[in-house]
Amino acid sequence: MVFERGGGGEYMNWEDGKDLARSLRRNQTREEGILWQNLRNRKLSGFKFLRQHPITYDEGGKRFFFIADFYCHSKKLVVEVDGKIHDLKADYDEQRDLIMKEMELVVIRITNDEVNNNLNEVLEKIKSRLTHP
């Protein structure tokens, strides 16, 4: 099965996609690491999160995927941690969020600054979406 990085135009097979996800896990940002320490092992209200998880979708007879920073399958919740690079990718992020919304996924975008300066508020925001969808 062939997957394509959303918007990137570079085709890759599923094994390459899994390798990409593994690489992103190994090379997570500082802020992703901080948030992961608070989400892993069901630490947030008992909900299971996956990190750097591929979200697949079909479009025009082709199979595509995004890699979500964090994903809670039971609540269909995607948590994205955005650094400064996302200021340059606003259109791409908006398109990606729209596709995930069409898949009935809820997307929460958190900035690096929020993780660094208001971690408790970030965790409460995520917890609120988990317990009061």
Question: Keyphrases for this structure?
Answer:
alpha+beta; Endonuclease, Chain A; 4-stranded mixed beta sheet; two-stranded antiparallel sheet; 5 helices; 6 strands; disordered N terminus
Task: Describe this structure in a few short sentences.
This protein is an alpha+beta fold.
Overview of the structural elements:
- This protein has 133 residues and is an alpha+beta fold.
- It has one domain (2-131): 3-Layer(aba) Sandwich (Endonuclease, Chain A), CATH 3.40.960.10.
- Helices cover 41% and strands 29% of the residues.
- The chain has 5 helices and 6 strands; from the N terminus they run E-E-H-H-E-E-E-H-E-H-H.
- The protein has helices spanning 14-26, 30-39, 90-102, 112-117, 119-131; strands at 2-4, 11-13, 50-59, 62-72, 77-82, 106-111.
- The strands form 2 sheets. A 4-stranded mixed sheet has the order 3-4-5-6, sandwiched between helices. It has a two-stranded antiparallel sheet with strand order 1-2.
- The longest helix is centred in the first third of the chain and has 13 residues, at 14-26.
- The model is unreliable at 1-11 (pLDDT under 50).
